[in-house]
Amino acid sequence: MSVDAATVRHIAKLARIAVSDAEVEALAPELNNILGWVEQLQEVDVEGVEPMTAVIPNTLRLRDDVVTDGGKRDDVLANAPAAEHGFFAVPKVIE
Amino acid sequence: MTDYRIHGATGEWEVVIGLEVHAQVTSNAKLFSGASAEFGAEPNSQVSLVDAAMPGMLPVPNAECIRQAVRTGMALEAQINPWSRFDRKNYFYADLPQGYQISQLYHPIVGEGEIEILLDDKDDSTAKRIGVERIHLEQDAGKLMHDQHPSFSYVDLNRSGVALMEIVSKPDMRSPEEAGAYIRKLRAILRYVGSCDGNMEQGSMRADVNVSVRRPGGALGTRTETKNVNSVRFIMAAIEHEANRQVDVLEGGGSIVQETRLWDPDKAETRSLRSKEEAHDYRYFPDPDLLPVELSDDFLRDCRASLPELPDAKRRRYEQSLGLSPYNASVLTADVTTARWFEALLDKLGEAHAQRAGNWVTSELFGALNRLGKTIEDSPVAPAQAAELLRLTAEGTLSGTLAKQVFEIMLETGEDPARIVEERGLRQTSDTGAIDAAIAEVLAANPDKVAEYRGGKDKLFGFFVGQVMKAMQGRANPGVVNDLLRKALG
Amino acid sequence: MTDLTDLGIAAIRDGVRDGAFSAREVAAAFGEAVEKGRALNAFTVETPEHALAAADVADSARASGDLKPLSGVPLGIKDLFATEGVATTAGSRILEGFEPRYESTVGANLFAAGAGMLGKLNMDEFAMGSSNETSAWGPVLSPWRRNDGGNAALTPGGSSGGSAAAVAARLAPGVTGTDTGGSIRQPAAFVGITGIKPTYGRCSRWGIVAFASSLDQAGPMARDVRDCAILLEAMAGFDPKDSTSLDLPVPNWEAALNSDVRGKRIGIPKEYRIEGVPAEIDQVWERGIELMRDAGAEIVEVSLPHTKYALPTYYIIAPAEASSNLARYDGVRYGRRVAPENGNLTDMYEATRSEGFGAEVKRRIMIGTYVLSAGFYDAYFNRAQKVRALIARDFERVWAECDLILTPTAPSAAFALGEKSADPIAMYLNDVFAVPASLAGLPAISVPAGLNDEGLPLGLQLVGRALDEQGVLNAALALEERAGFTARAEAWW
Ligand SMILES: [Mg+2]
Ligand SMILES: [Zn+2]
Questions:
Q1: Which of B65, C159, C306, C349 counts the highest number of beta carbons within 10 A?
Q2: pLDDT digits over B2-39, tens only?
Q3: Hey, are the CB atoms on A15 and C323 less than 8 Å from each other?
Q4: In this structure, are residues B276 and B260 in contact, taking their beta carbons and an 8 Å threshold?
Q5: Which of C397, C410, C449 is nearest to C193 (CA)?
Q6: How far does CA B32 lie from the centroid of its chain?
Q7: Closest to C312 (Cβ–Cβ): which among A14, A37, A90?
Q8: Which of B269, B424, C357, C205 is nearest to A23 (CA)?
């Protein structure tokens, strides 16, 4: 399949990246090149092959249900572009 | 019961309902971090660097949350998947620091199960089985506050990362009542299992309500999803409103858009949320920071062994082996705290007295708690005290009237009944001497009435009983009083 | 006395221990070199005070006789590692001004072992690049120049380009790098140093800015194999904070170093002989094969049939994971925020990410978003995960026939800045030999093996079985001893 300007805009929207018309112009062929290039995977026979889960055999370890963290609001907010009264602040959301 | 139908201008419509319930898992820490999951703390005080999605932070799953999801699945007789996996659900929102929610799409931890609901508590023939599609674990989001500042919304991440079970029903419900019964029953089971406190006010349980309408038995219509409805009443109201709205749209020649809607409790209506909808495509894929969840046989065995007796089993046992009435059985098992209280009482009193105990709890105790506006958790009378009170009555130490007096005092003072009986001498007496003396006084004081009675005015007997009881301050054994009075009045 | 900056990790450690010089002298010497080397643009932040403080601790530790494995050793830390109280940007504008309140596990391990930090090393933005040209802070210049007198500015490779340049230019005796699809090995080859990517899970990823979680691995870059062994020992280890970390003891790789490879079977994968690779690459590969044969190893031709699919597989999986990993850079909790006048939340997201991310990062986020989007998941991502399984299986099978695999590290010597930046795919091809080991999570090292006609270094890669870092290091040592690579860049900076 080939990526047109509308698709580029849709993808950019999903990725929350503003794109100018010029950028859309430039991105469409670039993405098509890359996608065209990875198309070659379609020729691989993957019949009955399980998708890779853990590259090195390993089992999931679980944490005990103990409170070991939190209580560090200053660290959490330290780098915030906008924080007020112990909250992060973002442009008002109207629901 | 007759089927629920909406009577439209063009004929009858059937409503098809499915519920996605988000239940907060009872745990100390969050699903993937060591921060506390407790409700109502200072903003951002229960946030780890993981919950705030700082660069390079990684999730490590909480064993208890997995255990609780599995126990819940077992309680719903559901398929437990020994191999499951966490996926990322990608979308941007201010309450979602990672830019994705860790959830389970492709391989949920729990598969199909079912819940039996009773449309009429007293009638097993009104039972209906509602299918459960799946249960998966996922992270809760943070909280946005919109009314604190003119141009900012504030973000509190305390809830960010708290463990939720999403319990997805099949579209098996056909009326608001069935949906209500389903939620109540699910809540009861979760509370019995101890995997969720079921506190809807605090949002530990909320439902996404999927509703569609169709001609009875016809093909499924397009559904809408009304998100985050947080009370049984609202869920039922939302279904009713949404179903009628859909019928109006369809009969007006329109069609239903598959969309997300919002329940507005003040206006008692659902509203479209299309704003937040635009271009949503969650791009689920397995979370590469986590390995598959593999449950050992031992783990599964322990989960099963830790399950308590569940409401249905308990209800049947109360009816069949304790001989309780269907009504008492269902009232006493409806909530785990009531059942626990009742069984603590039976421990002391003995199951032989189960019926009397059941009647006393459902009438006397519930009546009193209602009056005092208290729940059974904060009942001023403990199960052991209630057992003692019932024993004193059974022994004849207390008459029904005395028992009521003693119970009132217990409610006020929290004292043990035996002590109350001792200190206030509220013991019932069959002492014929004392009773004869009292009778003699009463007769002497009312010669005219005695004459009338002897003249055939039988109904005055009750008057004499009352007077004698009064003279005995209610402590006389009523049976004895009757006998002796008859003799005395000859 | 020799210039202290000519010393490697082992020499510094031993010299400090034996009192040949003080740790402070070492830290000061490298601090000076870092300052003098600014023309290379290898560092994004310089932290001489950190290195000196660690040095003073080392000097008093020596007095009190409790030296640690890296006491007195100053290191450079790639800017992908979160460093407590020190700006960490991952080479991106979107993290401008971010000062972590935490230390990456690997960094903490190194500092606990006595090392100090000279500064943060420049890199391709979010480790996405093979030439360091995607860094928001400008490209790193290779200390090397072609012998044609042209003085063309060359790339040190990427993404760990600052790391590579710093070691090659003697600004640091050793550094940390990260390798997702060759980001340690390719730059090491381009500047004539040694770098190893351990088995996936050996080094904790906690506190390392994520690019592609299922591929990212930290590793050391240094002047020789022994120094890499020493650093890797300190960096590696189980970390309960990383679910993918391997719960295994860390072997004493340095102590067990042994260049005797007699009887070892070295596999030469025929699929790695690809069209259009310059003759000099085949020549250095042939030379490597000869050297290993001389060393008594048995050379066997082997086959890794799915090799040609490794790169396209990588360019689906890595961008897909990255598109999700980079969603957290939204201008809410840290880094840059660009909020248009009375714009809403979405406007802020889009402006922040549009201005904060560079072209290559945006390109990969877009690709990753596309391959995961509705309807394409199975055709792209899921298929790529299956092919990845086949690639891993190729290696599993081949270990029956050989103990190690020897290949070129990169398909060319260092190229000039700007030479490939216009063509993404040409750039991606740099990692054609490095990516298969990444997809299979296997340990792989790059060792300098010679110079091309233009006087630029060429590297050879050795790939081993999962967890067999020792075998990889030993074979690399044998190669190093025989290749006798001593060339170094003339200081022009
Ligand atoms: Mg839902
Ligand atoms: Zn959900």
A1: C159
A2: 689 999 999 999 999 999 999 999 999 999 999 999 99
A3: yes
A4: yes
A5: C449
A6: 29
A7: A37
A8: C357
